[in-house]
Amino acid sequence: MTLTFDVDTEAGAAVVHPAGRLDLSTYAQFRDGLLKCALEEPTAVVVVLDDDFEVATPAVMSVFTTVWMRVSEWPGVPVVLVGLGAAHRRLLDEGGAGRFVRHYPSVREALAQREPDRRRDETWLPASPVSALMARRFVRDTCVRWNLPEVLDDALLVVTELVENAVDHGHSAPHLRLELRDRALAIAVRDDEPTPPERREPGTRPGGRGIALVEEISRVWGHTPWPGGGKVVWAVLDPGA
């Protein structure tokens, strides 16, 4: 049996309606579909589970925990469940996902619990050595507009390393996105190269410390495959950290 799902947009959230059977053969497809929804950065991913959604075993309900963990730091989109009947709730709890993924009686109640609006800005940069300079200007201007003087210096260091990595190793025009939520600044750079960034020891690359520096000054960092190819390398900075 197959598993399909429709995605509607409601108040900026992606509302997912899966239909079919979730089992080992459809697990990866469903997981990747939910991740794709989250990477498009809606205000939330709301999964509606009704009688059209069948579950083979409690273990496959871990798909919701997997997606929640993948997107919790970046892009920081909440993943919630709606419409759990007694059978789905039992499977969710037996599979362990109930400890991590919130669930609500209705879509309206789920949307009412979303985080306050987040601030976001983004820009495309050329596949050129001047990209790092342009990225620093963009970050500086954005931090001034968002009143983030305490995080500016670290943000300039991080964006320089991420953009230079995208140009030098991704061989593509980077897409830079900044997002502010709960006073934490997320910096994300997308390129066309799917290979994860390589962590080098300090001094092994002229002109910078690369991912080692990003790791040192960020609260958390990571990389995420981009649907259709390429990747996003991201870092989250806490003001005053």
From TrEMBL:
It holds the Pfam family HATPase_c_2. The keyword Isomerase does not apply. Signal peptide: none annotated. InterPro entries: Anti-sigma-factor_SerPK (IPR050267), HATPase_C_sf (IPR036890), HATPase_dom (IPR003594), STAS_dom (IPR002645), STAS_dom_sf (IPR036513). GO terms for molecular function: protein serine/threonine kinase activity. Residues 3-114 form the STAS domain. Gene3D superfamilies: Histidine kinase-like ATPase, C-terminal domain, STAS domain. The keyword Kinase applies. Keywords: Kinase, Serine/threonine-protein kinase, Transferase. This is Anti-sigma regulatory factor (Ser/Thr protein kinase).
